[in-house]
Amino acid sequence: MNVTRFGASTVFLLLTAGLLKTVTASFLGHIGICSWIPIVGVLLTPLMWLGSPVDFWPAAYSAMISTVIGSFLLIVNIIIESPDHIHSAKYPAPTFKSFFLSFGNILFAFGGASAFPNFQNDMREKEKFPKAVTFGFIGNKYLN
After folding, report:
1. Which of 38, 91, 100, 116 is the most exposed place for a label (fewest CB within 10 A)?
2. Percent helix, strand and coil across the chain, each rounded to 5?
3. Which is nearest to 18 in space by CA: 6, 36, 43, 30?
């Protein structure tokens, strides 16, 4: 479980640093991904000191709200731009590097499953955990 969480957090750190590099390139100049990694690490460190998910429950609500808003904006953007960009997609041939970068992202996507027992332990009504997981996955399927 610790290895899975370490791997998932490493991918999360790299993805966040890469995103910040891309987003801030126009107004902060050239700050490389290697500079963003310690910045993101320092900003996220205080969250790691919290004991369990029950200590930072507002993060779940903010994650849900940002996912809904992001999904809505993505759908609107696709609807607006799709008439201008309808053509067949061209994908480059996979390389050794692209395969393992993609594989790391796939592992990151499934990295949170090992935390389920911790979430269930923090619930007031533990017997409702299967229902919560079912509704969560249904919402994730239809909102994304």
Report:
1. 91
2. 80, 0, 20
3. 36
Asked if 111 and 5 count as a contact pair (C-beta separation under 8 A), the reply is yes
Whole-angstrom distance, CA of residue 3 vs CA of residue 11: 12
Dump the DSSP string for 47-102: HHTS-SGGGGTHHHHHHHHHHHHHHHHHHHHHHHHGGGS-S----PPP-HHHHHHH
Q: In this structure, which amino acid lies at residue 65?
A: I
Contact 116, 1 (CB under 8 A): no
Query: How confident is the prediction for the chain on average, in pLDDT?
Result: 81
Alpha-carbon distances of 112 from 5, 92, 109, rounded to whole Å: 7, 30, 7
* pLDDT tens sequence across 32-43: 889 999 999 899
Q: Specify the amino acid at residue 115.
A: A
Yes or no: say if 44 and 9 are a contact pair by the CB < 8 Å rule.
no
pTM, to two decimals: 0.51
